[in-house]
Automatic annotation (TrEMBL), chain B:
<dbReference type="InterPro" id="IPR037667">
    <property type="entry name" value="FMC1_homologue"/>
</dbReference>
<protein>
    <recommendedName>
        <fullName>Protein FMC1 homolog</fullName>
    </recommendedName>
</protein>
<comment type="similarity">
    <text>Belongs to the FMC1 family.</text>
</comment>
<comment type="function">
    <text>Plays a role in the assembly/stability of the mitochondrial membrane ATP synthase (F(1)F(0) ATP synthase or Complex V).</text>
</comment>
<dbReference type="GO" id="GO:0005739">
    <property type="term" value="C:mitochondrion"/>
</dbReference>
Length: 292, 140
């Protein structure tokens, strides 16, 4: 979504590129990927303003796609965003700048969602959480909905996903349960309410990040494990892609698809987690009085 | 939660460890003018009596008792603490490292495999040795 708006990103800062199509003014027919913006700034720095920490590209202030001033509440987040901008060489690759994208989403809120709507969207993933759809053969005592055919996959899913479900049950004091039907398990209302009230304790920015991570990993449980620092990003991505990894081990890997997906998911999950943590923390400085 | 205390990474203050390290340095002829690291203040004689301490430790839950005992002295008090800030920072650093690594890898994959689009008409003509006609006034 942001790639389409990247030309308006610095509307207040730089003149627009000429609106030539890829085939030229003569009416071209071919497809060429959209021309990437060249890096037009030398230095990136941060400064503190009223709304928070701002990013300066040379002497110009960075703005969001909706032309608002780009201001973040946390200095560490500002430094990370500035690093992203600084690490672009020659051309600007917006698809690598995940933290910038997240900040833009939080600032602009283009889908105009309120906090309640975000929380509802996040908890909705509980019903179709990835860690439900595992495998369980006839010998499985927990009647959880899991694929039955490849027994090795069944075993793998049982070994990998059960601990994380058990952790979530213990940590949030909920009963997550499991079922055999294709519709997935029945989530009791108390579980849903617990998660809703837990998510309500985060601020708006952190919620945007949480919802982003949940959407990427397709699992509320795994996202909560990441936010609570129970599992690492690599492990969460592995658990989310367990079946794919199993198939890769069995049938081989296609680098331009599997590796690409893996790296993209890792980058997005890591960016989302970092974003949530940096937005939820606050730091204070307390000066000690020197005693003579 | 009790198990987390056992993962505290190191204890500078363990007297046996410090003494062993200093002995090792002395044997190699390295003379330390001052200690290599500052240990936190050890609980020395001012404090509860050993009997009282042992009684307090016996009231702890089992992992705490084992951990509070230390490796060499079952009834001693350890100076190891759970440093949550350290773990949080470590997690954040690991997450950022994962982000940077995967972004770099992704950019490399993108550069290697991503389609470059079709050739322009000029390039296609150039492949077979032709040049497109130049019509300064436009067509027609």
């Amino acid at each position: 979504m942001w790639r389409g708006r990247c030309r308006r990103l610095l509307r207040g800062c730089v003149p627009r590129p000429p609106p030539d199509g890829p085939g030229g003014p003569g009416g071209g027919r071919g497809y060429a990927p959209p021309a990437e913006r060249k890096r037009f700034y030398q230095n990136v720095s941060i400064s503190q303003g009223e709304g928070g920490f701002e990013i300066n590209l040379d002497h110009r202030k960075l703005k969001t796609p909706q032309a608002k001033l780009f201001a973040v509440p946390s200095e560490a987040l500002a430094i990370a965003v500035a690093t992203e901008w600084d690490s672009q060489k020659d051309t600007i690759k917006f698809y690598t700048m995940h933290l910038t994208t997240l900040c833009n989403t939080a600032l602009d809120n283009p889908t105009q969602r309120s906090k309640g709507q975000l929380i509802r969207a996040a908890v909705k993933f509980l019903e179709t959480d990835t860690v439900w759809y595992g495998t369980g053969g006839p010998s499985a005592t927990e009647a959880s909905y899991r694929v039955e055919e490849p027994a090795a996959l069944a075993e793998l899913q049982k070994n990998e996903w059960d601990p994380i479900v058990a952790w979530a049950e213990k940590r949030y004091n909920v009963a997550i349960g499991s079922s055999t039907s294709i519709m997935g398990p029945n989530i009791p209302a108390s579980t849903r309410d617990t998660f809703i009230s837990h998510l309500a304790s985060y601020n708006m920015w952190a919620l945007q990040g949480i919802e982003y991570v949940i959407t990427q990993l397709k699992s509320l449980i795994l996202s909560m494990g990441l936010i609570d620092r129970h599992i690492t990003v690599e492990k969460a991505v592995l658990l989310s892609r367990l079946e794919e990894e199993y198939q890769i081990q069995r049938w081989g890997k296609v680098e331009w698809a599997h590796d690409y997906d893996l790296c993209e998911l890792r980058a997005r999950a890591a960016a989302g987690t970092l974003f949530v943590h940096l937005c939820s923390e606050s730091s204070t400085v307390k000066h000690k009085l020197l005693q003579d | 939660m009790g198990g987390a205390a056992a993962t505290a990474s190191f204890s500078w203050g363990h007297p046996e460890a410090r003494a062993a390290l200093q002995n090792c340095f002395r044997r190699r002829g390295l003379f330390l003018r001052r200690p290599l690291f500052q240990a936190p203040a050890e609980p020395s004689s001012p404090g509860p009596s050993p009997r009282l301490r042992a009684a307090a430790i016996s009231l702890l839950p089992a992992p705490g008792r084992r951990e509070a005992g230390g490796r060499h002295r079952p009834m001693g008090v350890t100076s190891e603490k759970l440093c949550r800030a350290q773990q949080e920072l470590h997690f954040q650093a690991a997450t950022y490292l994962c982000l940077l690594r995967s972004v770099r890898h992704l950019a490399a994959l993108h550069h290697e495999y991503h389609g470059r689009g079709e050739r322009s008409p000029e390039e296609v003509a150039g492949l077979v040795g032709f040049r497109l006609p130049q019509q300064p006034g436009g067509k027609g």
